[in-house]
Amino acid sequence: MIADTSFLIDLMVNDPAAVRKATEIEKKGTAISVCAPTIFELYVGVALSRKTETETLKVLSVVGSLPQLPLDFESARAGGSIFGARVRAGSQIDPEDAMIAGVAKVRGETILTRNLRHFSGIEGVTVEGY
C-alpha cells in the first residue's frame, strides 16, 4: 500500500481517522510504503514552513522507517500517460499525483489517501480512503 501525502500529513498532525486507519493496516500486517513524489511534496511543505527544523523532524518521524519506492522509468512513463490522458480529457490531476498513480499502477499497489477524487477513475489504480 502506498501512502499518499495527505495520509502522511494527517498522521503527522494526529488526525484521528488517519491514526485509526494506520492501526487497522498495521493489525492486518499490510506494509505501507512511500514513493519519491510524496517525499518531494512533503519537503516542499518543509521548505515553505516557518519551522523547518520542527517540520523536518515530523516528516522523518513518519517516513523514516517506511519502505521507499522510486519513480523509475516504468512508473514515470505510466504517470506521464495518466497525466496526459487527464489533461486531454479536460480533467485535472497534479503532476505529483499522476506520478504517485504511476508508481501504484506499475507496482500493483493501492493508494491510501484522504483525497479519493484525486485518483478516481484511473484505470489500473486502486485507492482506499479513511
SSE layout and pairings?
Elements (H helix, E strand, L loop, with lengths): L1 E2 L1 H8 L3 H13 L5 E2 H13 L3 H12 L4 E2 L3 H17 L5 H13 L2 E3 L3 H4 L6 E3 L2
Parallel strand pairs: 1-4, 2-3, 4-5
Keywords, please?
130 residues, mainly alpha, Rossmann fold, three-stranded parallel beta sheet, two-stranded parallel ribbon, 7 helices, 5 strands, 62% helix, 9% strand
Number of strands: 5
The share of residues in extended strands comes to 5-15%
N-to-C SSE string, H for helix and E for strand: EHHEHHEHHEHE
The CATH topology turns out to be Rossmann fold
Low-pLDDT sequence parts: none
Which quaternary structure do these chains form? Answer: single chain
What sort of overall outline do the alpha carbons produce when their principal axes are compared? Answer: globular
From the coordinates shown, what is the CATH architecture? 3-Layer(aba) Sandwich
Give helix % range: 55-70%
Summed up:
By secondary structure, this protein is mainly α.
